[in-house]
Amino acid sequence: MEENEVVWLQANQLSCIRDDRVLFEGLSFELGAGKILLLEGKNGSGKTSLLRILCGFREPDMGELLWGGDAINDSQYQTDMAYVGHLDGVKKELTVFENLKVSLALGRPGRYSIIDALDRVNLANYDDVLVQALSAGQKRRLSLARLLITENKLWILDEPFTSLDKQGIALIETLMIEHCARGGMIVLTSHHDIELHNVAVQRINLS
Amino acid sequence: MSLSNAFFAIIKRDLVLALRRRSEIANPILFFVLVITLFPLGIGAQPHLLQTIAPGIIWVSALLASMLSLDSLFRSDFDDGSLEQILLSSYPASILVLGKVIAHWLVTGLPLLIVAPLLAVFLGMPSHSLGILLLTLLLGTPVLSLIGAIGVALTVGLRRGGMILSLLVLPLYVPVLIFASNAVEIASTGLPVSAQINILISILVMAVVLAPWPTAAALKMSIN
User: Fold this and answer.
1) pLDDT tens figures, A117-127
2) How many domains does chain A have?
3) Which of A2, A178, A207, B129 could cross-link to B188 by cystine, CB 3.0-4.6 Å?
4) Range of the domain at A40
């Protein structure tokens, strides 16, 4: 348990200003191995903006973000982090397998092979299907399968449960618990209240 | 090793995508052929005039065809979120972007090279300048794609960026147009054109080395 206390992600006094409106300021938090951070708040309260700052797409207007003690601009953070946004990030003209192959080439190979990962997210036998033939929930599961085939310590998930059915949600929760049990970390936004066994969920309310 | 894997995976992905969306490849090449075939009809029975302006016609059409195809370079990746995933990769974004530009040139620039000799004959260009025409297209059209990529990267976040894109990119296309069409023109008189070719080569080398960085930086700004 000793090493689980290590703080990986550290935010100091983050502020985000959009169109002269202060979304949040003075936001500080820490995230250690095996922990989940759930961002809550009304629509427009800056949840997605915060996630995009965590991804490095946006610079915080004030404050700093540290990963393992170093600023997140260094390439180690890019290797350790994976993002699934509200856009699925899959090409509809490619097959399920081709999409994951590209993701695999762009990242570091992880625990699961492509076929195993598809099996895990209940998309076995869909590997030759064009993505445009999939339902919204299946696409979502495909974009989450990306997290399994690459090796990433930190998952950043923007509304991961959108368009998933009950089994889909249960499945993703299981995957999240497994990820945390292996020392991974997750930052997510969700309207859906999550209840996870044996995992400490920190909550930040942005509104 | 795995950087080259990622680089070739991007090229392969974009080629497969282009194959499955054939109309996007067909558009620029159809435009190129149509514009050039309309010139003789518009000018009338003046073979000498046509022969004189043939290098200019072919190059201007190639330039416009290349600009027409630019928007498809990052648009669909931007719309479906794949661009975010590419930029989040731990590999240098500029290299991956270069892969995308190369794939784009293979499907939009290379076909122009294949039909250009036919159209040149159609305009009555002397056969000894065909080689130089092909050489200038081979050296020039990749530059158009590389420079154009910077412009598209800057405007991909705007819903109607087409107008701004042409204003941004056209002035930068001018040197290529001048040296390339001049080389073909001089070649048809039988004079050596190594100076123009050397300049085109140096422009190409500079574009390959320098253009991917601002493109990647502009893309990062656009997805913000």
Assistant:
1) 999 999 999 98
2) 1
3) B129
4) 2-205
